[in-house]
Amino acid sequence: MENSLAGQLLVATPDLSDGLFERSVVLVLQHDERTAEGVILNKPVDAEVDDVLPGWQSGATAPQRVFQGGPVQLDSAVGLVGCPGDGDPPLGIKRLFGAIGLVDLDAPQDLVWPEISALRIFAGYSGWSSEQLDDERARNGWFVVEAEVGDVFDEHPETLWRRVLRRQTGSLAWVSTYPEDPALN
């Protein structure tokens, strides 16, 4: 798809006040003419990785929590890894874009650990029909910005929304100062 958003971030605008997506930062993993899928990068839940995937806790990037990837298939897990280099990915890892890969969570951990630089586990994912995402963008629900590898494995997810916006140019950087409750401004 010529205008694919895969590898970019969807950053919720202040107009998007839906509970789960409010002030969310979504990494788009796949986008074509029919669907778009991604994971929310800044919504950790109160669950350790070993609670969901025994044995994966020790390799998880801080904070070593499971993140809510979105509202779709909450009973499934998605594992993203930092995959250094630009050659073929190691066994058990599918390179998505740049240094970001999708790990097969059934792969032997002793094969995965030496090959990755970071790991984040998500419960579920976010999904849209392509038309639905286009409509949400047209209604001022999302900003689309470039992703950085550090965004995916950020150790301080509670401030990621502001920091991603702050590094943008022009008026978009000003949105980072938007108060959580404009009525108190």
From TrEMBL:
GO CC aspect terms: cytosol
Domain of life of the organism encoding this protein: Bacteria
InterPro entries per the UniProt record, alphabetical: AlgH-like
Gene3D superfamilies in the cross-refs: VC0467-like
Family, per entry: Belongs to the UPF0301 (AlgH) family.
Protein's name according to its UniProt entry: UPF0301 protein BJY28_003127
Organism, as annotated: Janibacter alkaliphilus
